[in-house]
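Lecture notes, part 5. Sequence design as translation. It can be helpful to think of inverse folding as translation between two languages: the language of shapes and the language of residues. The source text, in structure tokens, appears below.
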């Protein structure tokens, strides 16, 4: 398992999958170990995935200072990984909450990003959260499912009033609820660092006006990817996110939820591989 040192001396780990030009991958959660990403539905057949375990998650060390779990502080770790890999510029893919880290990285180091894919990423860094109504509207698209009648009232109450997460809500995050989705969902509790997650978006993490201004000048092509059935982001929010970038395109995967590579690996792999293939050669 390869490792490298962050600027503050924390030893961070990453995992390699596949062959070809490197594609750096930032996990979501927030602060979930990278194993839930697997090989991203077969994307490792096209690129060498470099799956980063963010500090305090997976095989990476717990930092001495827990304040460094904050999203803007993690940008230095991503830059240290780029330097460690010896890449002048890198292709970057980020899932879910990792999308905000990727946006902050691109804003601070625009010349180091060759291509950027934001996979079902709610743009907290742009002060554009998925709203309760977004999530409920997406959930209602599942009305024909056998688990919907029992799960939806509790899901709505949770979104409006808060409280503990109920496992009955999990199917809303997948495009189809089958054995593959259930097996993927089982990993969640063992893979997340709750303390780190709580600090990820804490006060001071995001400066939306500054980030928007920086990303408006980003030369790199950007893919903003949404699942048709996902509540965060819904396709409309993905389109609004794309408007922040000068060179962005939107992909909406039919029938997909928050984990599109689980819902339809072939569709996901073909679309993302084609996007990165346009950048072609090694950076």
């Amino acid at each position: 398992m390869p490792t490298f040192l962050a600027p503050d001396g924390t030893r961070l780990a990453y995992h390699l999958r596949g062959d070809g030009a490197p594609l750096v991958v930032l996990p979501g959660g927030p602060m979930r170990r990278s194993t839930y990403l697997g090989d991203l539905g077969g994307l490792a057949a096209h690129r060498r995935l470099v799956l980063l375990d963010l500090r305090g998650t997976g095989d990476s060390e717990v930092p001495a200072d827990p304040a460094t779990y904050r999203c803007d502080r993690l940008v230095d770790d991503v830059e240290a990984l780029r330097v460690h890999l010896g890449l002048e510029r890198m292709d970057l893919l980020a899932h879910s909450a990792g999308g905000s880290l990727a946006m902050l990285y691109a804003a601070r180091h625009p010349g180091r990003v060759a291509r950027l894919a934001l996979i079902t990423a709610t743009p907290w860094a742009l002060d554009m959260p998925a709203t309760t109504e977004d999530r409920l509207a997406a959930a209602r698209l599942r009305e024909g499912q056998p688990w919907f009648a029992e799960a939806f009232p509790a899901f709505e109450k949770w979104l409006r009033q808060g409280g503990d997460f109920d496992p009955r809500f999990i199917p809303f995050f997948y495009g189809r609820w089958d054995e593959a989705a259930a097996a993927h969902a089982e990993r969640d509790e063992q893979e997340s660092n709750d303390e780190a997650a709580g600090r990820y978006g804490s006060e001071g993490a995001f400066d939306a006006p500054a980030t928007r201004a920086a990303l408006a000048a980003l030369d790199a092509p950007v893919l903003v990817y949404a699942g048709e059935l996902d509540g965060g982001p819904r396709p409309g929010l993905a389109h609004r996110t794309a408007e922040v970038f000068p060179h962005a395109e939107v992909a909406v995967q039919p029938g997909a939820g928050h984990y599109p590579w689980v819902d339809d690996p072939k569709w996901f792999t073909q679309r993302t591989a084609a996007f990165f293939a346009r950048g072609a050669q090694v950076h």
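The translated text above is only one of many valid answers, since several sequences can fold into similar shapes. The chain has a mean pLDDT of 96.
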